[in-house]
Amino acid sequence: MKVGAPVYLRLDALKPVRTGSSLRGRLRANINSAYYDYPDDSRDAGPSWVEVGAPTQGKSFLINRSFSYEVYFELDMRGGQKISGQAETVDLTSPSGVISDKLPFSEDYKLYYTGHGMRAPEPAAILSYTITDTP
User: Fold this and answer.
1) Distance between CA 129 and CA 57 in Å, rounded?
2) pLDDT digits over 15-34, tens only?
3) Rounded to an integer, what distance in angstroms lies between the CA atom of residue 117 and that of residue 105?
4) What pLDDT is stored for residue 94 in this prediction?
5) Tell me: the pLDDT tens digits for 41-54?
6) How far, in Å, CA of 39 to CA of 80, rounded?
7) Using CA atoms, how far apart are residues 128 and 109, in angstroms rounded to an integer?
């Protein structure tokens, strides 16, 4: 990989934990305090919703290159409910000091129902994502 080459956040899958559960909403990724929405906000056609369990078709976003990413995801659902995970740090510093040694980095991120300062004990959905140098 070239120095300064682009880095992408790729959404690989968004699946419900319980089969048969129906969740629809807009996924928001917060990566180092930059926001990315899926599906993209189509202002002239009204809100767009994603069905949890439907293919994401490997949707990718160009993100700022960094050795460390603060990652947080939430799904704003119709009716105002949210499911979200915990903010976490993804450290991509390698012994050689090159980010490409750690790419691609993939993880499953758990999303929980939240409200009134509490979080459900079991996740409602799992988001599989990858930080990569190829879209």
Assistant:
1) 12
2) 999 876 778 889 999 999 99
3) 31
4) 79
5) 655 555 578 888 87
6) 17
7) 6
Residue appearing with tokens 């992408």:
8
Q: What per-residue confidence (pLDDT) applies to 1?
A: 44
* Residue 18: CA count within 13 A, CB half-sphere: 8
Q: Which helix (H) or strand (E) holds 23?
A: none
Residue type, 11: L
Please provide the size of the chain in residues: 135
pLDDT > 70: percent of the chain: 91
- The architecture in CATH of the region 7-132 reads Sandwich (2.60)
pTM comes to: 0.86
Indicate if the pLDDT at residue 98 is higher than 90. Answer: no
Residue with tokens 């960094």: 66
Distance between CA atoms of residues 123 and 112, nearest Å: 4
**Between β-strands 105-115 and 125-132, what pairing exists: parallel, antiparallel or unpaired?**
antiparallel
Distances (CA, A) of 32 to 65, 66, 71, 88, 110: 10, 9, 7, 10, 19
Residue owning tokens 């079991």: 122
